[in-house]
Amino acid sequence: MVNQKILKLDNVSAEVKLILHLLKQKSHEDTIENLEKLLGDINWTLFIDQVKHHRVYPVLFPILNKCTHQLIPPFVIQRLRMDYQRNIFYMLQISAEMERINRVLSEENIRVLFLKGPIIAHDLYGDISLRTSCDLDFLIPINELDKVEQTLLKHGYLKDDYIRTILDDWKWRHHHVTYFHPKTKTKLEVHWRLNPGPGFEPSFEELWQTKKQSDLTTSPVYFLGREHLFLFLVTHGSRHGWSRLRWLLDIHQIIEKAPNWKKVYNLLKKYHLEHIGAQALILNHTLLNSNIDSTHPYFFKNSKSGYRLAQDAIFYLERMVNLHTDPVPFEVSKFHKQHLFSLMSLRQKILFLLSTLHPYPEDAEKMPLPKSLHLLYFPLRPFLWAWRKKSKQALS
After folding, report:
1. Among 259, 282, 288, 245, which residue's Cα sits nearest to residue 26?
2. β pairing state of 222-223 and 176-180
3. Which of 165, 285, 300, 383 has the greatest number of C-beta atoms within 10 Å?
4. Cα–Cα distance, 303 to 154 (Å, whole number)
5. Are 17 and 38 a contacting pair, CB within 8 Å?
């Protein structure tokens, strides 16, 4: 067993600690055993809020439903039962829509790789009811974006045109665009990158070569191979500070599936992400009792940065952080900005700092120029940045 440091969880709430206790056990019997001593200080309304925030009620409800009502208040079971049943119907609905969208795009000869959603729930958990999904994420080659957009618009989807861009920086600064169907209430995230840039990541062709075909659907639907799926999920989870336990639970399920860890490590090394892989494994071992013995020859030779990043992620567990709901509290926003920078390798930090020399859409808003003169924003960038900063200070 690799020599482990202990993560500090002193400021994590009793409600989150109870959730972790319920998730980390190997069986329902182990979960219920010695449960009473954890229940003394539980605010059950806050417990429900935390369970919903972390999107783990599909896994927790079957466990808690086996407990006696003397241990768990009946209203808690009832609330989680409602969420559990609602999720079953929604996952069935979104599974059907996933297959329909895949078929529609396949008819246009567009290759599609689904990244998350019911296809991942089925592959990792063996049951689509055990994971939540609020939208469908899929990856396509960047040169097919216009064709995909026309196809989706033809089938009733509306584009959320929120991306501001200048000199085509959307291609590397952003990674997906969103579509919404007003009748089915389905949200699609169409990716041309796995994560926002700048950064190093596999090409679509590399991912397509190692794809897997799902047996959830009647027609062929493809998703990421196990090793690339690990890479995607750890980069996605770390970028969000592991602020939802469901993302760590996904990693736990992959660990249980025993991927080829040598291939996983070589992938992460190729894209300068070894420290992020170590962060995810340390968090899973500490919080969910995941068995990482087979992984440590690859990940824990130099794990100091992994432990530091794992401890940083506890910040998000100590709070109910939702990075997509504005306004994000200043304390959280400031910490998250620093954490994102700390996740970068030295090479990634250099690339990121160089990318700040590229004009931003805000530059064009501050000093509008004809499109034919947009290249002038490169030499003007330092002056426009200073101008905007001075304007913000004056407003403050």
Report:
1. 288
2. unpaired
3. 285
4. 50
5. yes
pLDDT at position 4 is 56
CB-CB contact of 366 with 388 (8 Å)? yes
According to the model, what pLDDT value does residue 263 have? 95
Q: Which stretches of the chain score pLDDT less than 50?
A: 1-2, 27
Q: List, in order of start, the domains of the chain with CATH numbers.
A: 14-352 (3.30.460.40), 360-395 (no CATH)
Give the model confidence (pLDDT) of 246-271 as tens digits: 999 999 999 999 899 999 999 999 99
Question: What is the tally of helices (H) and strands (E) in the chain?
Answer: 19, 7
Residue 17's φ and ψ, nearest 5 degrees, are -60, -35
The pLDDT value given to residue 101: 97
Is-above-0.85 flag for pTM? yes
Neighbours of 194 (CB within 10 A): 25
Place of tokens 């927790």: 60
218: Cβ–Cβ under 8 A, 6 or more apart, which residues? 99
Q: Which residues pair with 159 in a beta bridge?
A: 179
Task: Quickly list DSSP for 126-193.
Answer: SSGGGS--SSEEEE--GGGHHHHHHHHHHTT-EEE-----STTTHHHH--EEEEE-TTT--EEEEESS
| Beta-bridge partner residues of 296 | none
Apex 315 CA angle, 347 and 274, nearest 5: 30
**Burial (CB count within 10 angstroms: exposed 0-12, middle 13-18, buried 19+), residue 161:** exposed
* Residues whose CB is less than 8 angstroms from the CB of residue 142 and which lie 6 or more positions away in sequence, other chains included: 171, 192, 193, 204
Distance, in Å, from the CA atom of 252 to the CA atom of 284, rounded to the nearest integer, reads 6
In whole angstroms, give the CA distance from residue 276 to residue 64: 33
- Contact indicator for 188, 157 with CB cutoff of 8 Å: yes
- The CA-based angle 342-345-348, given to 5 degrees, is 105
- pLDDT of amino acid 1: 44
Helix (H/G/I), strand (E/B), else coil: 326: coil
Report the pLDDT value the prediction gives residue 27, as an integer from 0 to 100: 47
Rounded to whole angstroms, how far apart are CA atoms 79 and 72?
A: 12
Rounded to whole angstroms, how far apart are CA atoms 242 and 231?
A: 14
**Under 8 Å between Cβ of 212 and 219:** no
For residue 198, whether the previous peptide bond is cis, meaning omega lies within 30 degrees of 0, is yes
